[in-house]
Amino acid sequence: MPEPDQSLGNRILRFFVKEEEPAPTASGVPPTTKAASPRPAPDQPAPTDPPAASTATSMPNASEPGTSTQGSVDPKFAEHLANVLAQNNPLGPDYFEFRETLKSLMNLGLSEEKQFQAAWASFKALGGPADAGVLTRTANQYVSALQKDRDGFAKSVDAALSERVGGLENEQKRLQAENDALTRQLQEIEQKRAANTDRLNSITGEMSEQSAKIRQNKQNYETTYAHFVEQINDDIRKLTQYLK
To answer: Which helix (H) or strand (E) covers residue 140, if one does?
Structure first.
C-alpha cells in the first residue's frame, strides 16, 4: 500500500471532527490555528491549549464504574485516528470517496435520503463500483483498522500503568518495611527513617497524579474512538437503508 500523504489524513480528519470558526481577536483578525501534534504516550497529559476544536462528546470511565472522570474528543487522538484511516485507504474509490462526495452535498438543503442518493450517483459517475456493498465493506474495514489501533492503545495503557503505578506501589511497600526495621534501631539512623517517611508521603500524591493522567488520556482516546465509529456505523445504517 502506498504511503498516504498528509492531505489525505487531513481530509479524513475533517469528516469526523467539525472545525469551528476561530473567534476574532481584539484587532478583528482570527488567531492562527495551531497544528495538532501526533498522539503522545498514554501517560502524557492532554494539551492545555488545543486547536479550536471539535464536536466533543463525553463518556464515563468504563474501567471505573461510578467515577466522575469524563473523556472528550481530543485533537491529538483525532489526528492520530484520521491517519490510521488514511494508512488503510485502499486504491480506487471506496467508502472514503463516497463520504467525501456526501459531505459536499450537506449544505444544499437536500433531505438526508436525497443526499445519500445524489452522492451515490456521483460516486458511480466518477468510476466507483456499481455495487453499494463495496461502501459497507470498506467502511467496515476502516472500523476494523480503528479497532486494531484501539487494542494496541489499550496495551500501551496497561504497560504504562504497570510501569508507573506498579513501580511506585513496590517502592511504597519496600520503604514501609524498611521503616519498621529502622524504628527498632539506634537513634543515629533516625535521619534515614525521616527521609524515607517524607518519600512515602509524596508517593501517594504521585500515584494519584499518574493514575489520573493515564486514565484521562484513556478516556479521551475512548471518546474519540467512539466518535469516529459512531459516525461510520451511522453511515453504514443509512447506506443499508437508502441504497438498496
So the answer is: helix 133-161
Q: Give me the residues paired with residue 60 across strands.
A: 70
Three-class SS state of 60? strand
User: Rounded distance, CA 218 to CA 213, Å?
Assistant: 9
Retrieve residue 73's grid coordinates. Answer: 474528543
Q: What is the pTM of this model?
A: 0.51
DSSP 8-class letter at 46: P
Q: How is residue 125 written as a grid cell?
A: 459517475
DSSP letter at 5 equals P
91 in a structural domain: yes
Looking at residue 70, what DSSP letter applies?
A: B
Q: Please report whether residue 35 resides in a domain.
A: no
Instruction: Tell me, yes or no, whether 57 lies in a domain.
Output: no
How many distinct structural domains can be found in the chain? 1
pLDDT digits 0-9 by tens, 206-219: 888 889 999 999 99
CA torsion sign for 4, 92, 230, 110 is positive
| Domain annotation covers residue 37 | no
